Amino acid sequence: MLPETLExxxxxxxxxxxxxxxxxxxxxxxxxxxxxxxxxxIRLEKKYTGKVWLNMIQxxxxxxxxxxxxxxxxxxxxxxxxxxxSKETHDKNRKNIAGQGTYEKAMCGVxxxxxxxxxxxxxxxxxxxxxxxxxxxxxxxxxNGFKNLAFNxxxxxxxxxxxxxxxxxxxEWLNFLTxxxxxxxxxxxxxxxxxxxxxxxxxxxxxxxxxCTYRGTCYQWFAVDYTGDIYPCERYGKIxxxxxxxxxxxxxxxxxxSVLTKWRKNIEVLxxxxxxxxxxxxxxxxxxxxxxxxxxxxxLYTYCESRLGLYYYIQQKLN
Length: 319
What we know:
Elements: H1 3-13, E1 20-25, H2 35-47, E2 52-59, H3 66-74, E3 78-82, H4 87-93, H5 103-115, E4 121-126, H6 134-143, E5 148-153, H7 170-187, E6 193-194, H8 195-204, E7 223-224, E8 229-231, E9 243-244, H9 251-255, H10 258-267, H11 272-275, H12 280-283, E10 291-293, E11 299-301, H13 304-317
Parallel strand pairs: 1-2, 2-3, 3-4, 4-5, 5-6
Antiparallel strand pairs: 7-8, 8-9, 10-11
């Protein structure tokens, strides 16, 4: 992102109605933007003092050194790292340009962060190559000191299951999650948080989970591309464009735009299965990008059965 676009972004964000603004810096690999880029971000946040700026960065940790860690520590950045379980499972998918695994380099970056009192959360992506290793993945993350875990199911919108060597079926995802839950129970450590388990435990208490995939829409978020173009979410790619930070004089102009209004209306249509589901108000048809048309042509959450299955599994386990 060019310096002038970055400055315009902060002008735009300063128009937001809330006092606290949370920004997730994502890539690709966001650290490739360089230390000067992030130093410029910090200067801009100090310039626009009317907001409390909450920064989160998701990195593969391979470029993390003492200077990066010091920058994040001094400016209260929350850091998430992408570690896909053990060395074996991580290296199955995360290879460098020479075809070598990147686990050891990533964990080196994690350990540098910890020496600066940054204890990153981790997002672990699960593919068809790693879905059978639930116990190994969970145990390895715990043994390596991670306390806040999240698991992303790999879902490829560009191909079908018969040809895709990465995407998971509903049943595979359910089996993985139930094995993780069993391991979490055996661990019996309340300081270890698993996003997917937290979400279902909220359901058990008849509460809505604090996660966008349980809200049925992601209109609370905007993804801003390096060009300044605005999209719904990074999972959508560039299919739906809401405009640009350069084209709106006020924030309200964005949220009332005809493109956003139409998109929001479309993704909030509920399929028949959801309308008759007793858990609809807690689930809301899952991630809006992880849906496939049902028999009536209405998009239904691809992992509906695994989500409901995990709920009933946990409910039974906890009586």
